[in-house]
TrEMBL record:
Protein known as: Peptidase M16
Signal peptide: 1-17
PROSITE patterns, per database record: PROKAR_LIPOPROTEIN
Sample GO molecular function, one term: metallopeptidase activity
Residue ranges occupied by any Peptidase M16 N-terminal domain in the UniProt entry: 63-183, 505-630
Length: 935
C-alpha cells in the first residue's frame, strides 16, 4: 500500500524515505558508529554519525542544530507533532488543509511565503502532512537564515489574523483538486478501502490524510482557529537547523523570533496501537487502471520498536531487488508479474508490512497468488539465509550514506534529526536503527517474520503537564522579515579534462564530501537515434544493458552490485544515452570492473529480452493512463514533422507495436552503431582525482576500440513548422480532471537566446508564484498546479504550458490559459519587478544548487550535451544580471506565439467535447491515445 504523503506544491510523494535508514548522530558527548555484518564490501569500517546540539526554550520549543559547512546554505525544518490522525470525526483532511493555509501569509507578511524565499534563491520550499506530523521546510543561502526564521515564527505565532474566508475557500478548492488529481492516477483510490480494511473504527489511521470532499467543504474559520490554538504551540514543535550554522549562532536567533510564542495546551497522545488481525480479510475493487495489482498488508510494530527494523530486512529479502524471493518467483521465473515490491512503512502507532504485485495478465491472478503464497510460506518455514541478510544490510547501509550528503530534503540529515526527536525523543535515534539493522542475524529476522507474518493480513487485495513561560519579544514585526543584504557566491569545483589511450574523453570534477564516486558514459545517441528505426529501440537497448553480459547473468550483476553497495543504471533522452555508476570509493575498483563489463559486453539475451518486453508493454499502458504522460506521448507528433527524429512519444518508450516487433538484431545493431568508444565521453564527479581515475579507467576501458564503420549521424537540426490554432482532444473516460497542454517549438537549449527565452518563460509559468499558477491555482482554485517550461533539446525544443483542470471547469480553464498567455505576450508584458524577482531567484539559488556530486555531474552532462563550456554555470550570474526587461519582452513577443499554439486536452470527452467545439476556436480534432485521428 503506497499511501499518499500530501504536499503543498508538486505531486504527492511516496512515504518510503523513512523506510531507508538515515544516519544517526550524537551530541558533544560522543559519536555513533554503524557496524554491519560481514559482507563482500568494507562498509563495516565506515563511521556514520550526525553531530548535533539540542536545546529547549522556556516555552517548550525543541531546537536541534547540525553544523555542515560544505556549502553556504542552511536547511530549516519545522515539525509539528500533529497530523491527520488527530482529526476529529467529520473533519477529515483538515490537517492538510491547514498546512496549505500556512503558506498564504501571516499577520505581518500578508502574501505568499514563497515570494521572499524564492527571491533569495531558496530551494526545497514546501510543506507536507502525514498521519503523525506536519512539517514545513526550506533550504536558504546562509545570509537568509534570519529571514527564514522570521517567516516561520510569524506564521507559527502570528497567523490567525491573516486567515480570511476568501483564503480558506480558495485553498479548499485547491485541496479538492489535489484530491481529484490523486484519485485520477492509476491505483489512486486504493488507499481508501485499504485503510478501512486494516484499521478498526476509532483507529486514528482509518481515514486518509487528504480527507473527504464533504468534510473539506465543511471546514470553517472556527475550525482554523481551534486547530491552530490546540496544535501549533511551541511545546508541540521541533525546529531543526542543518548546514552552514552552529548552535551559538542559532540559539539567540531562535529565542529572538520564537521565544514569545505560547507553548500551547498540554496534549494527550496515543503512542502505540497495532490492530493485529486474527484472520485474513480479502477484498476487491474495480477502477480504471492499466493492470491488476495485488496488495497484501500486515500491521506490525511501530517505528520506535526494534522489531520493525528486523522486519524491514525481511522485506528486503522477500522483495527488495532482482534477487529477492518474490521477484525471482513472479517476475523472473514465471514472468506473470511486471513488478513486485515488498516494503515496510513505519508510523508512530503501528507500521505496515506490504507485498505489492503488478500482474501483466489479469487471467494469471490465480497462479500468481498460488506462487505468492508458496514463496511466503517457504520463506517462513526455511527462513532467510545469512547471505541474504548480509546483502540486505549492505543495500540499506549504502542507501543511508547516500542520503547523508544532503542537509535538507527527503532522507537528509535535517529530516533524520527531526524524526528522531519527534517520535523517539532522541535526535540520534537513527543510530539505534543502524545498529539494530547491521547487527541483526538471520535467526533474529526469521523469528520476527514468523511471529508477525503468520497473523491475519488485509489484501486488496499519560505525562504530567509542564509549566511554560514566554519571554518579551524585541522583534518589530511591522518592519517585515529581515532580508539579507549580501548573498554567497557560487563555488563550483574545477573541471579537468583528459584523454584515454583509446581516444575516449574524460571530464572530472573532484568533490570529497562523502566517499562516493559518480560516473557516467554519455553517448551521442538518445531517442533521436531511433529515426528510421523502430520507436523505442534506444531506450529499450539501454534498459537491456544490465540484463546480463557475456560474463555475468542479470542476477549475478544485481547480486554483485548489491554486495558492493553500487548502483548501475541507464537512461536516454532526446539526444544522448547514458550508462551511470554510483560507487562507494572503498569498492570503486570492483564496481568499475562490473560497470565495464556491463558497458562492453552486453549479452542481449533473448530470454531476458522477452521478460523486459512484457514489462515494457505494461509500462506503455501506464503512460497512456496518466493524463500528463499521455499528453507528452502525443504532443511531439503534433509539433514535429513526420520523419523528424523528435516525431515520437516524448518518453522514448515506443509503441506496443514497435516493442512487440523489436528483435535482438535491432538491439545489437543499435549498440554497435551508437554505443562505441569514439562516440562516448566519460564524466566523473565525486571523491576521486584525475590521477586516481585515469589508471582505473585505462584498466576498464583502455582496450575498448571503435568499430571500423563510421559513426552514424542524426539530423536534429531539421526544422519543423507545426500548423497553429489546432485543438486536439483525447478521451480519458471518467477522469475527474482534464490535462490542458498548449505547446509550440522554440530554438535549441544550446542556442544563444536560450537563457533569454527561458527567463521570459519562467516569469510566465516557471515558479509557484509565476503568473500562470497564481491565476489558475491560487486565484481560481481550479487545479493543483499550472506551469510552463521549455523542454531541453539539441534541436528545436518544445515549450509547453499545462495544468490538470477539474473537469467541470475545462472550458473556463482553457479560455483562461489562452487569455493569460495572450496578455503576457501583448497587453501586460513582463514587468521590471517580475524580472528582478526571477533574476534574484535564479542567481541566489546557484550557490546551493550543486550540493551533491550528482548535481555537479548532471550539470557537466548537460554542458556536454549542448556544447557548452564546462564552466558554463559560473557565468550564469553575470549573464542573468545583464538581462533587461526590454530583452525579456522582446523574447516573449518574438518567441511565444499564442496564435500558433497547438492545444491538446486529455479528459472525458463526454463531458468536455461539446463545450470545446462550441467555442468555435481553431480546428478541433479527436485522436486516440496512439495519435491516430478519429475525427
Amino acid at each position: 500500500m503506497k499511501f499518499k504523503n500530501y504536499l503543498l506544491c508538486g505531486a504527492a510523494v511516496l512515504a518510503l524515505a523513512a523506510c531507508s535508514p538515515q544516519t544517526g548522530g550524537g551530541n558533544s558527548q560522543g559519536t555513533d558508529q554503524a557496524t554491519g555484518s560481514a559482507s563482500q564490501s568494507s562498509l563495516a569500517d565506515m563511521e556514520i554519525h550526525i553531530p548535533y546540539e539540542k536545546f529547549v526554550l522556556d516555552n517548550g520549543l525543541t531546537v536541534i542544530v547540525h553544523e555542515d559547512r560544505k556549502a553556504p546554505i542552511v536547511a530549516v525544518n519545522v515539525w509539528y507533532h500533529v497530523g491527520s490522525k488527530d482529526e476529529p470525526a467529520g473533519k477529515t483532511g483538515f490537517a492538510h488543509l491547514f498546512e496549505h493555509l500556512m503558506f498564504n501569509g501571516s499577520e505581518n507578511f500578508d502574501g505568499e511565503l514563497f515570494v521572499p524565499l524564492e527571491k533569495v534563491g531558496g530551494k526545497d520550499l514546501n510543506g507536507t502532512t502525514w498521519f503523525d506530523r506536519t512539517n514545513y521546510y526550506e533550504t536558504v543561502p546562509t545570509p537568509a537564515l534570519e529571514m527564514a526564521l522570521w517567516l516561520e515564527s510569524d506564521r507559527m505565532g502570528h497567523l490567525l489574523g491573516a486567515v480570511t474566508q476568501e483564503k480558506l475557500d480558495n485553498q479548499i478548492g485547491v485541496v479538492q483538486n489535489e484530491k481529484r488529481q490523486g484519485d485520477a492516477q492509476p491505483f489512486g483510490k486504493m488507499e481508501y478501502p485499504q485503510l478501512e480494511g486494516l484499521f478498526p473504527p476509532g483507529h486514528p489511521y482509518r481515514h486518509s490524510t487528504i480527507g473527504s470532499m464533504e468534510d473539506l467543504s465543511g471546514a470553517s474559520l472556527e475550525d482554523v482557529h481551534a486547530w491552530f490554538k490546540k496544535y501549533y504551540g511551541a511545546a508541540n514543535t521541533v525546529v531543526v537547523l542543518s548546514g552552514d550554522v552552529d548552535a551559538a549562532t542559532a540559539r539567540p536567533l531562535v529565542e529572538k523570533y520564537f521565544g514569545d510564542i505560547p507553548a500551547g495546551p498540554a496534549l494527550s497522545k496515543t503512542k502505540s496501537w497495532v490492530p493485529v488481525k486474527s484472520s485474513n480479510q480479502i477484498e476487491e475493487m474495480t477502477d480504471d487502471v492499466p493492470n491488476l495489482r495485488i496488495s497484501r498488508t500486515w500491521t506490525v510494530p511501530n517505528r520506535t520498536d526494534k522489531r520493525a527494523y528486523l522486519l524491514r530486512l525481511a522485506a528486503e529479502v522477500l522483495g527488495g531487488g532482482k534477487n529477492s524471493r518474490l521477484y525471482q518467483a513472479l517476475v523472473y521465473q514465471s514472468q506473470l508479474a511486471s513488478d513486485v515490491s515488498v516494503h515496510l512503512q513505519p508510523f508512530e502507532l503501528t507500521s505496515l508490512f506490504e507485498i505489492e504485485v503488478n500482474l501483466k495478465d489479469p487471467d494469471a491472478r490465480e497462479k500468481a497468488e498460488q506462487i505468492l503464497n508458496e514463496t511466503v510460506e517457504k520463506f517462513l518455514a526455511e527462513g532467510a539465509t545469512a547471505e541474504e541478510i548480509s546483502r540486505a544490510q549492505t543495500v540499506i547501509t549504502a542507501s543511508t550514506i547516500r542520503g547523508l550528503e544532503r542537509i535538507g530534503g527527503g532522507g537528509s540529515k535535517a529530516v533524520t534529526l527531526a524524526q528522531g526527536e519527534l517520535y523517539a525523543g532522541d535526535p540520534a535515534f537513527i543510530s539505534k536503527v543502524i545498529n539494530w539493522t547491521n547487527t541483526a542475524t538471520a535467526s533474529d529476522v526469521n523469528e520476527q517474520a514468523r511471529e508477525w507474518l503468520t497473523n491475519g493480513y488485509y489484501q486488496l487485495t499519560v505525562l504530567p503537564a509542564q509549566s511554560y513561560t514566554t519571554v518579551a519579544s524585541s522583534v518589530d514585526r511591522s518592519a517585515g522579515p529581515p532580508m539579507p543584504t549580501t548573498m554567497p557566491e557560487l563555488t563550483f569545483p574545477a573541471v579537468e579534462e583528459a584523454t584515454l589511450s583509446n581516444g575516449m574523453k574524460v571530464v572530472l570534477a573532484n568533490r570529497t564530501t562523502v566517499p562516493i564516486v559518480e560516473m557516467a558514459l554519455q553517448f551521442d545517441a538518445g531517442y533521436a537515434a531511433d529515426a528510421g528505426q523502430k520507436p523505442g529501440t534506444a531506450k529499450f537497448a539501454l534498459a537491456m544493458m544490465d540484463e546480463g553480459t557475456t560474463n555475468r547473468s542479470a542476477l549475478e550483476i544485481a547480486a554483485e552490485a548489491e554486495s558492493l553497495g553500487a548502483g548501475i543504471s541507464s537512461s536516454s533522452n532526446l539526444d544522448v544515452s547514458r550508462l551511470h555508476l554510483n560507487a562507494l570509493k572503498p569498492n570503486l575498483d570492483q564496481s568499475l570492473d562490473l560497470f565495464a563489463d556491463v558497458v562492453r559486453n552486453p549479452a542481449f539475451d533473448a530470454e531476458e529480452m522477452e521478460r523486459l518486453r512484457q514489462r515494457w508493454i505494461v509500462s506503455i499502458d501506464q503512460e497512456k493512463s496518466s493524463l500528463m504522460q499521455a499528453a507528452l506521448r502525443l504532443m511531439p507528433t503534433a509539433l514535429y514533422d513526420e520523419g523528424h527524429p523528435y516525431h515520437m512519444a516524448y518518453q522514448g518508450s515506443g509503441t506496443k507495436e514497435s516493442i512487440t516487433n523489436l528483435t535482438r538484431e535491432d538491439i545489437t545493431a543499435f549498440y554497435s552503431n551508437w554505443l562505441r568508444p569514439d562516440n562516448a565521453t566519460v564524466m566523473i564527479a565525486g571523491d576521486i582525482t584525475m590521477a586516481e581515475a585515469i589508471p582505473a579507467l585505462e584498466k576498464a576501458f583502455g582496450s575498448w576500440t571503435a568499430p571500423a564503420t563510421p559513426k552514424p549521424e542524426k539530423d536534429v537540426d531539421a526544422l519543423s513548422s507545426p500548423a497553429g490554432g489546432r485543438i486536439i482532444l483525447v478521451d480519458q473516460p471518467n477522469s475527474p480532471s482534464t490535462m490542458i497542454m498548449g505547446a509550440q517549438l522554440l530554438s535549441s537549449t544550446g542556442a544563444d537566446d536560450a537563457m533569454l527565452i527561458d527567463m521570459a518563460s519562467d516569469i510566465y509559468g516557471g515558479e509557484f508564484t509565476s503568473r500562470l499558477n497564481m491565476n489558475i491555482r491560487e486565484d481560481k482554485g481550479w487545479s493543483y498546479y499550472a506551469y510552463a517550461s521549455a523542454l531541453d533539446a539539441r534541436g528545436q525544443r518544445m515549450w509547453i504550458n499545462y495544468s490538470p483542470i477539474q473537469v467541470d471547469k475545462t472550458r473556463d480553464g482553457f479560455l483562461e490559459m489562452r487569455k493569460e498567455l495572450e496578455n503576457y505576450v501583448r497587453a501586460t508584458p513582463a514587468s521590471e519587478a517580475e524580472l528582478q524577482k526571477m533574476k534574484e531567484t535564479r542567481t541566489n539559488s546557484l550557490p546551493g544548487a550543486f550540493e551533491t556530486s550528482g548535481a555537479v555531474l548532471g550539470n557537466m552532462l548537460g554542458n556536454e550535451r549542448f556544447g557548452r563550456p564546462y564552466d558554463h554555470v559560473t557565468t550564469l550570474k553575470s549573464r542573468y544580471e545583464a538581462l533587461t526587461v526590454g530583452d525579456v519582452r522582446t523574447a516573449a513577443s518574438e518567441s511565444l506565439k499564442p496564435e500558433n499554439m497547438v492545444w491538446l486536452l486529455v479528459g472525458d470527452l463526454s463531458k468536455i467535447e461539446a463545450d470545446i467545439r462550441g467555442l468555435g476556436i481553431g480546428t478541433v480534432e479527436v485522436w486516440d491515445k496512439d495519435g491516430n485521428r478519429l475525427r
